[in-house]
């Protein structure tokens, strides 16, 4: 009985801990999307991405799969593209972009079929129309569509105006079902995500842990004399 109590303490502490989101460095997830091989040009959304493990939709109803030089960070608000030049893929030769037209901003939504604990991507965006950086806003949501923690906000401004995308990633103590990103002509590439194990998988892991712990206790037991 003591073994079970000891094993359940860390689990109880984990469940009782408040939701936390922390920034994480680039990682290679079980799920990924680089947009390589997808038809280029503007297409209606939603799309199936990450091998069918997620879907993507844009607030404008369409998005572009582009290559270098195709999507300028300033179309509409800064036609000479001097703010951040043209978007460059983070890997391969293709990336995702949303042309917001006359709207103030555009939003992309990623919905996972299975919850994930980590998500990250390479992002970029146009300026605010006056040459200053426009904020990039990312939100994470749980299975009940409630936002996890606060907005994750950052600025994109490339020295030298090279159009290279920049990594931003997060890990959440609450499983993530949906991610939204919103900005001025947002661009993204190299999506990475780590799924949360299904309950059956957790049961197997917990069972193996209990058996291993019990085996260690038996091995260390001092023989009666």
Written overview of the protein:
The protein is of the alpha+beta class and 225 residues long. The protein has one domain: Jelly Rolls (Sandwich). 16% of the residues lie in helices and 37% in strands. The chain has two helices and twelve strands; from the N terminus they run H-E-E-E-E-E-E-E-E-E-E-E-E-H. Strands 1, 2, 3, 4, 5, 6, 7, 8, 9, 10, 11 and 12 form a twelve-stranded antiparallel β-sheet that branches.
What attributes characterize this protein structure?
alpha+beta, globular, 16% helix, 2 helices, 225 residues, twelve-stranded antiparallel sheet, disordered N terminus, 37% strand, Jelly Rolls
- Secondary-structure class: alpha+beta
Question: Based on the structure, what is the oligomeric state of the protein chains?
Answer: single chain
Element-by-element helix/strand order: HEEEEEEEEEEEEH
Instruction: Choose one word for the global shape.
Output: globular
Number of domains: 1
Low-confidence region ranges: 1-17, 75-82, 201-206
The CATH level-2 architecture is identified as: Sandwich
Which value, in Å, is the CA radius of gyration?
Answer: 22 Å
Estimate percent helicity. 10-25%
